[in-house]
Amino acid sequence: MKLPLKSLFAFTIALVLVGASHAADKPNVVFILVDDLGWTDLSSYGSDLYETPHVDRLADQGMRFTSAYAACTVCSPTRASIMTGQYPATLHITDWITGHLKPHGKMAIPGWTKFLSPDAYTLADALHDAGYRTAHLGKWHLGETEEYWPENQGFDINLGGWKVGQPQRGETARGYFSPYGNPRLDDGPDGEYLTERLANEAAAFIEENQDRPFFLNLWFYNVHTPLQAAADKIAKYEAKVFPDARHRSAVYAAMVEHMDDAVGKVMATLERLGLAENTIVVFTSDNGGLVDNRGKDTVTQNAPLRSGKGDAYEGGVRVPLIVRYPGQIPAGTRSSELAISPDFYPTLLALTGVTPEVAVDFDGADLTPVLTGAAESTGRDAVFFHYPHYHTEGATPYSAIRKGQWKLLQFYEGNRVELYHLARDPGETMNLADSEPKKRDELFSDLSAWKEKTGAQLPTLNADYSPELEHTFRIGAPIR
After folding, report:
1. In the structure, what pLDDT confidence band is assigned to residue 475 with cuts at 50, 70 and 90?
2. How confident is the model at residue 90, as a pLDDT?
3. Considering the domain 25-380 in this protein, what is its CATH number?
4. What pLDDT digit, counting tens, does each position of 94-111 carry?
5. Which own/partner pairs from 395-401 qualify as long-range (CB within 8 Å, at least 24 positions apart)?
């Protein structure tokens, strides 16, 4: 039976009020995602140059993970996994969007998905349906057209999220300095720094929604290239850096400080408004640190881990992870538990007490027992990676598994495998595939079963392979 308009309006208002009442006692959620932040790019994670007092304070107030991973060595797949709780292999979103091709390489890449479907029931959808006010601020990079942007993925507000993966530069845009050329963020005063602007917008959102539960998805563009920062911050690190340091880029150090200042602004706002005790804060990165920007710039170093963003090894996927929730997560704790991007969705549902209105098939694990100290482990013994693509930073098509302290990588060119024991060899320098055949075969079998379970798309031999043209990339958009 079709309801009269007045009755329909009253019914809608009733639903809204019920949702608001249901959410009234829920904790707020602030999810801070830094772009390209490496595993050692915080003072609290071992940097010998970068200063991050505000993020370090977060670590002192919550739990710091030492074996946390991004779901992919590049950004878009990791971002999709955060929003869905599923592996990139399950989603078939396995490269940055829109990706690039190596048309004459040994392997032909599969026809992967280049957007996060609006039909996905995202973390934002679940919290929104539970009565949360939802906002996305910053980088999105999960689809070329507006139908895939945050306002169509569960967010009430979108400031700064659109198709690109880095601040734009050109005749009408200056990268991190206004004007931004961003259709989802009005330009600020000439020379305004993007990360400071996002911090101010985040503070304003918190202020405006202090009387109701909110989900703030604060995904910085920092510390992605282009390398740009305020002149005074750059000068500070130019005077501080020393020749034998692991971290030596003054500009990158300044960008890290800009990010840390922004985190400090958000936390100060929560504390000033009396919200900090009832707010869950997650801080992490979308992939490992960029090492050398394809030979153009020295960016960061992930040592003792091997390599960095865009490559198969630990430096490309291991990232910082800090979770803070006073009264629930003991302060100043550490965990060596395996954690990975698909874990955030089920974990945040558990911490907030939200039951999603739509059934979600999670690949991720609920980290709550570990976070609260109820258990030392989730009981999961392995995490997985799948990147059937080429990347100019070094990756060739591969899949990988980390199980306990063991890590196996399967490279599709020549179908070769490498096996490492990360506790003894965090730099992945000693390939044990031949000397540990039993462990190699065990992990290879586990990885094969996981690929079948997720429906992972596999590369195939390339009929257009050419030794002469093998290393030529065809780029459909600037590499992210």
Report:
1. low
2. 98
3. 3.40.720.10
4. 999 988 889 999 999 999
5. 395/73, 395/310, 395/311, 395/312, 395/316, 396/105, 396/106, 396/107, 396/312, 397/107, 397/109, 397/459, 398/312, 399/447, 399/451, 399/456, 400/312, 400/447, 401/443, 401/446, 401/447, 401/450
